[in-house]
Design brief:
The protein is an alpha/beta fold. It has 10 helices and 16 strands. Strands 4, 6, 7, 8, 15 and 16 form a 6-stranded mixed beta sheet that branches. A 6-stranded parallel beta sheet has the order 11-10-9-12-13-14, sandwiched between helices.
Amino acid sequence: MPTAHGFTAQGFTAYGFTAYGGPETQRFLELPMPVPGPDELLVEVYAAGVNPVDWKVRAGMHRAFLHLDLPAALGREAAGVVVGVGPGVDGFAVGDPVFGTSARGCGGYAHFALLTASQTARKPAAVSWTDAAVLPVAAGTAHDGLAQLAPEPGETLLILGIGGGVGAAAAQLARAAGVDVAGTAAAAKREFVESLGATPVAYDGADLAEQLRSALPKGADTVFDLVGGEALQTVSTVLPPGDRILTVADPETAARFGARPLSRRSSTETLAELARRVAEGRLDPQVREVFGFEDAGAALRVVESGHPWGKIALDMHADR
């Protein structure tokens, strides 16, 4: 279990995994304090985002391109206060409140973490720690995806998997740009999807293709696929030409539909813009549940179930 203030004789407390596999490999860890290198910041973590990529890393799905020394802390994003600055890093100082992407692949579920400086921004005072912590992965992905798709005002964007964190952020950003939005989600999320200003299309129950034809009689101009698998096959009757389809699907599925893979270009400038939108009330990160650090395993179980609403965060100092 985590210690009262995050420190132990060996360093600090983190929640991570000891081997690639299922949830049985997860546990609290005592890790040595890391030293920030070039383009890195050492941060005392106040909040961390919980994402599907976290359990996929633990399961070994990213081993081909993400090399970790185990045991390792989970977590791809965090918010906190800078306590160390790596060599050559400009624009940040000890004491700065920041949020950003975990360096070296993971590490956000911890009382201290390394963040990539070029993918970190200062946290505005008007933005909560938990809201800031969940911006880099979901809202950052949504921003990058829309930049690639470039839907025009008045066009229709179809989001496959609109009910999750990325989909909810993409819907809000697109609507703010004057784009009409429709999205597939479970029927139980209908009101949630409508609250985003989007037309909901339930993927459970009646035939999805028929529901899409009914909801989008003129089809869609652009498609942002956040589901992968056979989702594109199911909605093929309303798909636009392939160069206007962006997908997180495997390369084989993407190639079959002429879709482009999602390419992340997260930067300090992007994150700062997203935080400004949150501070001004123009973007809601949709944090639906906040867990204490001691319940990190339970938080990840909710995400791994595959049906979370919006975003889930860890509050590292819920007892303060």
